[in-house]
């Protein structure tokens, strides 16, 4: 499908920029640079933040100390479904604030509590530190429904890119540890193979926002050693057993080097007997969910999410 003009214009602009690339910087500098670029571009990518009934920040306690979260309540009702959201950014970049508008839209559209988790980032905190934060925050949400007015019996996990990777792994941990039940997983252009072996990574290696060099750098920052790349909690596509996992909606983008990661993971979930909805969004690039001003099709993605979740959380 033809790429929307505004997305083509964005890529044209970004590909003309000179100077150091993210993968050539120390992590702290990369975070600062990424945030500055995002702040400059924000008004062109999305509109004002959607107002909600209540939004509040809180630090909760995990196995390794404090974990910041942001809770989005769409209305005053109780017993709403609870979506744990894990932001993207290659395990190194971005934070709760960078995905605030995405979480607000998900909370409003789906009439769900959304809890966005500020998990620890690499390389200061290597795998599985961020994953442990995500799991511990989900366990906290199950045990503390009175704080957020949600129903822990209606629990789902969601994330984009690296955050979707974390969501898949939280599902694997929840299945095996049996401390809580997850009813659904929403995986938005997930990375599922940290060995970066799938064809689309080479086919779309340059020029489409996310590059192969960036992904190699991200995985190098996140891993402790080469063996981590093959760990199913870092590369869920390589897991031997993907049975008995929550139903999933897996979204990919036509011009995203990670599109094979999502498609192949959806296929493996189906082969293992899980219910899966899969959709590749034509003309889209990585991170498109955060760019609704660039194409009406992107708001259509949010409508698709709403329709899928409405069938599960009636």
Model description:
The protein is α/β, with parallel strands linked by helices. It has one domain (5-48, 56-312): Alpha/Beta hydrolase fold, catalytic domain (Rossmann fold, 3-Layer(aba) Sandwich). It is 39% helix and 18% strand. It contains ten helices and eight strands. It has an eight-stranded mixed beta sheet with strand order 1-2-4-3-5-6-7-8, with helices on both faces. Strand 5, helix 6 and strand 6 form a beta-alpha-beta unit. Helix 3 (100-110) crosses helix 10 and helix 4 crosses helix 6 (162-177). The radius of gyration is 18 Å and the shape is globular. The two termini are 33 Å apart. The model has no long low-confidence stretch (mean pLDDT 97).
Care to give the gist of this entry?
With 314 residues, this protein is an alpha/beta fold.
Q: What is the CATH architecture descriptor?
A: 3-Layer(aba) Sandwich
Please trace the helix and strand order, writing H or E for each element.
HHEEEHEHHEHEHHEHEH
Mean pLDDT: 97
Question: What's the end-to-end separation, in Å?
Answer: 33 Å
Reported for the largest beta sheet, the result is: 8 strands, mixed
CATH topology: Rossmann fold
Gyration radius (Cα, Å) is 18 Å
Quaternary organisation of the protein chains: single chain
Number of strands: 8
Q: What spatial order of strands do you see in the largest sheet? A: 1-2-4-3-5-6-7-8
Classified in CATH, the superfamily is: Alpha/Beta hydrolase fold, catalytic domain
CATH class: Alpha Beta
Relative strand content: 15-25%
Structural class: alpha/beta
Shape descriptor: globular
Estimate nothing, just give the exact number of structural domains.
1
